[in-house]
Design goal:
elongated, single chain, 2 domains, Rna Polymerase Sigma Factor, Chain: A, mainly alpha, two-stranded antiparallel ribbon, 2% strand, Arc Repressor Mutant, subunit A
Length: 189
């Protein structure tokens, strides 16, 4: 059985098919949850509300979606905008992320010593926390969410040259901090 594309499902939602919306929610809930948890530490306590609002906006604005563009970029952009609003509200307080709820997979990391996955997750979390928000966001999208430069540009409304520069800077900043913490990174991307 062939999988139905997001773009087809979006068209069905626009035509009033509620089951298509259910399929999109099921398909995108986990990736969006991971994206928000990796990018917005202050959003961890309200992740369910943020995701619910993301899907509500998808439903309300489905007629504005252009099927010629990637659905993934559109939905990530909605989640991104909601995160930015949440970050502004919580700018002065940023509680630590519950690492048991987040999964960190960073390609290209190897350590000299055997580290448990949770310890590596804590190290990655600590390194990400040192990056400026704009570089952290690009790093998460490129290396953790594995988005293409074009998708990142669509999500963040930035041109390809800016994305490429920010990806390079985020990788360099991450690698520098990782090295300072005793992690060695293999060249990727």
């Amino acid at each position: 059985m062939e999988s139905i594309t997001d773009e087809v499902l979006a068209g069905r939602v626009a035509a009033g098919d509620e089951q298509a919306l259910v399929q999109l929610v099921r398909r995108w809930e986990s990736p969006l949850r991971a994206f928000v948890l990796r990018r917005c530490y202050s959003c961890a306590g309200e992740i369910d509300d943020l995701l619910q609002e993301t899907f509500l906006r998808v439903y309300r604005n489905i007629h504005e979606y252009d099927p010629a563009l990637r659905f993934s970029s559109w939905i990530f952009r909605i989640a991104h905008n909601l995160m930015v609003s949440s970050i502004r509200v919580h700018a002065r307080r940023e509680p630590p992320l519950d690492l048991d709820e987040a999964v960190f997979v960073v390609q290209g990391i190897r350590t000299d010593a055997e580290l448990e996955a949770k310890d590596l997750g804590r190290l990655v979390h600590g390194i990400l926390a040192t990056l400026p928000p704009s570089l952290r966001e690009v790093f998460v999208l490129r290396f953790l969410e594995e988005k293409s430069y074009e998708e990142i540009g669509d999500i963040l409304h930035r041109n390809a040259n800016t994305v490429a520069t920010q990806v390079r800077r985020s990788r360099e900043a991450f690698a520098k901090e990782a090295k300072a913490r005793g992690l060695h990174l293999e060249r990727g991307d």
